[in-house]
Amino acid sequence: MRARAPASSANLGPGFDALALAVDRFVEVEVERASRLIVRSEGEGAGLNDDAGHLAARVAIDVVGHDRLAVTVRSQIPVSRGLGSSAALAAAAAAAAGARDPLAVAAHTDGHPENAAASVIGGLVAASTVRGKVMPVEMPFDPHLVIVAMVPDRSLSTTKARQLLPAQVGLADAAFNLGRMGLLLAGLADHRLLVREAGEDRLHQDYRSPLFPEAPMLLAALVAGGALMACWSGAGPTLLGFCPDAVGPRLEQAAKTAMADAGVPGRVMLLHAERAGLVTGDAARLPALADDGTIPPLARAVPSPPAESSGEGTGPRSPAQASPRAVRATGSRIYDFDERE
Length: 341
Known about the structure:
alpha+beta, Ribosomal Protein S5, domain 2, Alpha-Beta Plaits, 8-stranded mixed beta sheet, 4-stranded antiparallel beta sheet, disordered C terminus
């Protein structure tokens, strides 16, 4: 069986360990019966661990119960860059191996229910583990927002980044993040409400900056270049700028210039929210490998033009003006994967 799952950006500033957004870079996993274990990989992370130690192989073996499998991994997701590569890989491998609940497998394997939920459900999600079970809630996301991602060539271990965080935080800092997360969710639902302050955080980003000292300057450059809000992606080092789709190309160029000026080698990606989540079967197939060893992005449908493309407006849209997904999510949609449609 073949399955595909999207990358995800977690935290999004104040939503530490609670929020994640699926974005349109993917990993495809195919699991087939074989006489012995065979692991193949191409694209991002190709050849790093093509044996029984590969995460996809470990997940598939655990699901199936034996190692007589051929596991093929094809990925567009940069590894160890804060884009949820492990959660996406675990979800796709679990589904390709026939797991009944890929979300539970991915969350257990990766340890981050919000990343796992975004890769399985798609879109913007809030997720937490409640009485031992992952409970994801789909949140509205404005379809006219795009994300410019600065992806440095350096990797950053999530474990190492988490070790820098304090064991306890003050009440004022916790309250600050709750307030900012309210601003963030409102702004992600309607870009006209998204403000720079929605990306502010006192729980993790500043503590992690010693691992990426150029980050504050690059985040400021994203805002100066047209981002409505900027933040770290997961534990980093990838940095995100959110802007209206009409501003995306300009912000993409500004991000490239800022990275070059800061002496930070890497690449810039223009990303979109991915709403499909986990996909199985022939529809999960990614494009063929390009000559440069990368897997090209999937073609996207172009959304209808927004009422205002400048990011300015007089107020939030009514449900009738919102995207179908946003209308469906307005009342908070809670998934139970034992009963999911």
